[in-house]
Amino acid sequence: MNREALKLPDELISRFGTRDPFRIASFLGIEVRWLSAKRQKGFCAVVLDEPFIFISQNMSEQMQRMTCAHELGHILLHRDILTKDRFFLDYELFNMQNETEYEANVFAASLLIDGQELYEQIREENEMTTIASAMDVNVNLLMIRIIEMQKAGSDFHIPFTPDRKFLKTIKDKADSI
């Protein structure tokens, strides 16, 4: 896996003083556009060497934020593929069988979820769904963050493995599994 997926979010947060993927995209000159899609959550594209993020307006703010973070990850981590293939279409944003999708997931999880805050929540023995709700992310995205923190040496014990296709089936709530 590309280690930039873990490092780059911290650099962006430090540089821009926010975890908000919409603001970071704006600071980087990446235009976010809205579309009225029912199935598709979002995609990113490079048009005339300019990156764009397209997000369905038919989702909750939480899902829009996660989608924006995921697509921002694609633009920043996979620009070479985007330039060649022109766009990523995401019907299943968090497909962990595909390396580029997993890297975009790790980027999104690292951007949206503060590791220190997560560690404190876990030490307080809060339930995963409670933590996900408090951090305003889906529990599967939370689990991706925990998995990566565990790989980096944290002493977390993961209660379950995130569903590989969770964004396709979730009910658009933080505690949906």
Q: Can you give the helix content as a percent range?
A: 40-55%
User: From the coordinates shown, what is the CATH architecture of the domain at 4-112?
Assistant: Orthogonal Bundle
Report strand order across the widest sheet: 1-3-2-4
Helix and strand content put the structural class at alpha+beta
Number of helices: 9
Overall 3D form: globular
What distance separates the N and C termini? 25 Å
Rg measurement, Å = 15 Å
Structure commentary:
The chain has 9 helices and 4 strands. It is α+β, with helices and mostly antiparallel strands and 177 residues long. It has a domain at 4-112: Arc Repressor Mutant, subunit A, CATH 1.10.10.2910. Strands 1-3-2-4 form a 4-stranded mixed sheet, with helices on one face. Strand 2 (42-47) and strand 3 (50-56) form a beta hairpin. Helix 1 (4-16) runs parallel beside helix 5 and helix 7 packs across helix 8.
